[in-house]
Structure formats: structure tokens, C-alpha cells
Design a protein that fits this description.
The protein has two helices and eight strands; from the N terminus they run H-E-E-E-E-H-E-E-E-E.
Length: 155
């Protein structure tokens, strides 16, 4: 009869093609819209936990995105248990080793500790990458009551 049955975990792979990546992603999300299962619920959770991976060591990276709306789906029990603490957003900066400027970077969203799916398209965050400034060397600490040695001899 064309129906698909499930008995437990729900993992489904949908593959589409397109003339470019954006079109292929759009087609994949259109293809999954009619998919549902008993007790299925969708919701949006605000992610606030971000990890920057492969940040260039000689650069300063500022994450401009402080929150990210993440669409999840699963059984009502699993979806209802999700909080922002369960959503992890990983940003891989491996391709930005010599970059300087403000960029929109793809992000991978993971739900930790619960059996739910992530939907909603491609997730992205904004970062600013700048060259590190060399600060002046710190002044040596001088205990209270002592005069620091400046190298000038005056008698």
C-alpha cells in the first residue's frame, strides 16, 4: 500500500540533486516535509552553546551570533525534553586560516543526549576574524612599598 512502518529509532536519509548546493538542499527539505510518524512533534529551540573549531592561532575570532533558532523533530516526549543546553552548534574555521574580516560560516547543529532530528536547512553563524595585536609587555609586579628598578642609576 506504499506505507512505511517504523519500530523504534527513526533515521532517514534523503538524497537530492540540484544545479548547485543551495538548490539540492532546498529540494531535500521539500522532500521531507510530508514525512511524519505517530506522535511526531516539531519545535524550534534557541541554541546558545557554540564551539569554534580550527580557529587560526594567530587571529582573534569573535562570534557575532549569540543565539541560533534550531528546528527539531521527534516524538512529543523527546522534543518536550529538549532545552538550549542540549543543542550544540559547531563552527569549523579550518578554511579561514589566513582570513581577516566578517564572514557567514556554515555551522553543524547537534542535539546531545536525546533521540531527535534537526531540520530547517543550512545553519550559519557570523564571525569576525582579525589579526592579533601585540600588546605591550606587562609591567613586572612590584611588591607594595618597593621602588621598581628602572635601570636608571641616580645618586
Amino acid at each position: 500500500d506504499g506505507s512505511i512502518l517504523t519500530a523504534g529509532g527513526r533515521v532517514l536519509g534523503v538524497t537530492t540533486t540540484g544545479s548547485n548546493l543551495e538548490e539540492a538542499i532546498s529540494r531535500a527539505y521539500e522532500a521531507v516535509k510530508p514525512i511524519s510518524f505517530k506522535d511526531m512533534q516539531r519545535t524550534t529551540v534557541t541554541a546558545t552553546n557554540f564551539i569554534l573549531e580550527n580557529a587560526p592561532e594567530d587571529r582573534t575570532v569573535d562570534l557575532l551570533t549569540e543565539q541560533l533558532a534550531v528546528s527539531i523533530f521527534g516524538t512529543s516526549g523527546d522534543v518536550g525534553a529538549i532545552t538550549s543546553d542540549n543543542i550544540l552548534v559547531t563552527v569549523d574555521l579550518a578554511d579561514f586560516g589566513s582570513a581577516v574580516g566578517t564572514y557567514t560560516v556554515p555551522a553543524e547543529v547537534t542535539v546531545v543526549g536525546h533521540d531527535v532530528g534537526v531540520s530547517g536547512g543550512t545553519y550559519q553563524v557570523r564571525v569576525t576574524i582579525s589579526e592579533q595585536t601585540s600588546d605591550q609587555p606587562a609591567e613586572p609586579d612590584t611588591p607594595a612599598g618597593e621602588i621598581p628598578d628602572t635601570g636608571d642609576e641616580t645618586t
